[in-house]
């Protein structure tokens, strides 16, 4: 059994979460391979898929959405988990909900075995200038909000779900 851990990121935070998930699954005896969706990985040869996406202005990254759409049939035939990474996920007012994740799952047309929204970072130097202006105008808190222990815990939680297939 091998799990594809695919991700799309614009600032790098989602990659660190995907790396943590890959390492945790592998340590739990579930071999996993990390691949950026920009490399167009073929999910056919994997037993399960974990897909992660950064969030940009309440939407999943376009490369993640395009990749999932192009492989929808294959993804729906095997266990798949989905996670997002965004600075806004750290907002307690959201209660762990993320509009981007809800819209993405609706677009998929099937329910993944697990969906999780993780806080990422809002580091202005890593964000395109036009987005910085928007975030500043919205008074978005800046900083690194990632919780890798929570990411590891989720990876351990989903390991048995990914093995059901």
TrEMBL record:
Transmembrane segments: none annotated. GO terms for molecular function: FMN binding; menaquinone-dependent protoporphyrinogen oxidase activity. GO terms for biological process: heme biosynthetic process. Pfam families: Flavodoxin_5 (PF12724). InterPro entries: Flavodoxin/NO_synth, Flavodoxin_dom, Flavoprotein-like_sf, Protoporphyrinogen_IX_DH. Residues 3-159 form the Flavodoxin-like domain. This is Flavodoxin. It comes from Brachybacterium muris UCD-AY4.
């Amino acid at each position: 059994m091998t799990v594809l851990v695919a991700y799309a990121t614009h600032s790098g935070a989602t990659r660190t979460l995907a790396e943590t998930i890959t390492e945790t699954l592998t340590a739990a005896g579930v071999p996993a391979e990390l691949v950026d969706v920009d490399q167009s990985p073929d999910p056919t040869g994997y037993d399960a898929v974990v897909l992660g996406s950064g969030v940009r202005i309440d939407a999943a990254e376009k490369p993640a959405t395009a990749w999932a759409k192009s492989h929808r049939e294959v993804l729906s035939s095997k266990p798949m988990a989905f996670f997002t990474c965004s600075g806004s996920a750290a907002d307690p007012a959201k209660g762990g909900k993320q509009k981007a994740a809800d819209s993405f799952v609706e677009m998929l047309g099937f329910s993944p075995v697990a969906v999780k929204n993780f806080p990422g970072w809002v580091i202005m130097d890593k964000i395109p200038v036009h987005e910085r202006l928007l975030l500043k105008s919205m008074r978005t808190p800046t900083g690194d909000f990632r919780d890798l222990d929570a990411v590891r815990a989720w990876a351990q939680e989903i390991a048995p779900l990914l093995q059901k297939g």
